[in-house]
């Protein structure tokens, strides 16, 4: 089944284009897709980058982890097929946000290359994969949510990094050393990248 389009529907092109929205905003739309282990720093970094972009006058939105499991993906569980569909829907929603001219940031573990490739295929050149590269030992020592302890005790099945694989990006647009660099330095790295690509102006 083609999940990108229903039968007998035709795209309606509005008068206001993405380029017009971007001109009004003074920056481009893009999707910053933060990926990494639980506790790697995806949410912390995505929200810190958003705060910086907002202060620069940019239009931003963060789509973060568990929040989409209320509502949009509330009908999905944690089977392989449901996890795949979860990421696909987020990729499609992010695409709409980017078309709306927003700097869109997402914070999902998204451990499987195939799922991230699906989001990349939906979003094309707008997709910026940001690998939050914190080693498992550091994430586990942080154990922000107490989940590693539970996973080690066998209380959480298929926990990424412990009992389920994390497939690290092979050629991410950005690799951020969220394990040993300061949060501020990581924010600067991301903003510099956006400026170099001409997505935002400093
Ligand atoms: N450079 C850094 N960037 C981001 N977070 C950092 C950094 N250095 C230390 N940290 C700390 O690491 C922790 C990361 O937790 P965070 O909730 O952001 O992880 P996450 O990747 O969103 O995990 P989850 O997938 O479980 O939601 C926070 O306590 C944060 O303060
Ligand atoms: Mg998070």
Structure, explained:
This protein is of the alpha/beta class and 202 residues long. It has a single domain, classed as P-loop containing nucleotide triphosphate hydrolases (Rossmann fold), CATH 3.40.50. It contains 7 helices and 5 strands. It has helices spanning 18-25, 42-55, 80-99, 113-123, 136-142, 147-152, 183-196; strands at residues 30-35, 60-64, 103-107, 127-132, 174-176. Strands 2-3-1-4-5 form a 5-stranded parallel beta sheet, sandwiched between helices. β2, α3 and β3 (103-107) form a beta-alpha-beta unit. α2 packs across α7 and α3 (80-99) runs parallel beside α4 (113-123). Bound molecules: adenosine-5'-triphosphate and magnesium ion. Adenosine-5'-triphosphate is lined by residues 36, 38-45, 65, 107, 109, 142, 144-145, 178, 181-183, 186.
Which structural class do the helices and strands define? Answer: alpha/beta
Any idea what the CATH architecture is? 3-Layer(aba) Sandwich
Residue windows where pLDDT falls under 50 for at least 5 positions = none
How much of the residues is beta strand, in percent? 5-15%
How do the strands and helices of this protein lay out in sequence?
Elements (H helix, E strand, L loop, with lengths): L17 H8 L4 E6 L6 H14 L4 E5 L15 H20 L3 E5 L5 H11 L3 E6 L3 H7 L4 H6 L21 E3 L6 H14 L6
Parallel strand pairs: 1-3, 1-4, 2-3, 4-5
Helix pairs in contact: 2-7, 3-4
This protein binds adenosine-5'-triphosphate (ATP) and magnesium ion.
The site of adenosine-5'-triphosphate has 20 residues, from α2 and α7.
């Amino acid at each position: 089944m083609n999940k990108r389009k229903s039968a007998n529907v035709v795209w309606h092109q509005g008068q206001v284009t993405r380029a017009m929205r971007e001109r009004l905003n003074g920056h481009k739309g893009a999707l910053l897709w933060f990926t990494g282990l639980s506790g790697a720093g995806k949410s912390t970094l995505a929200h810190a980058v958003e705060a910086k972009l907002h202060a620069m006058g940019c239009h931003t939105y963060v789509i973060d982890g568990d929040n989409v499991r209320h509502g949009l993906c509330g009908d999905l569980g944690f089977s392989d097929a449901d996890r795949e569909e979860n990421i696909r829907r987020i990729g499609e929603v992010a695409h709409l946000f980017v078309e709306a001219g927003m700097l869109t940031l997402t914070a999902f573990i998204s451990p499987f290359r195939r799922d991230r490739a699906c989001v990349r295929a939906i979003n094309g050149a707008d997709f910026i994969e940001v690998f939050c590269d914190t080693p498992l030992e550091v994430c586990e020592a942080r154990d922000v949510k107490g989940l590693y302890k539970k996973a080690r005790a066998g209380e959480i099945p298929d926990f990424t990094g412990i009992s389920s694989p994390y497939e690290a990006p092979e050629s991410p647009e950005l690799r951020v050393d969220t394990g040993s660099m300061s949060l501020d330095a990581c924010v600067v790295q991301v903003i510099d990248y956006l400026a170099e690509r001409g997505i935002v102006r400093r």
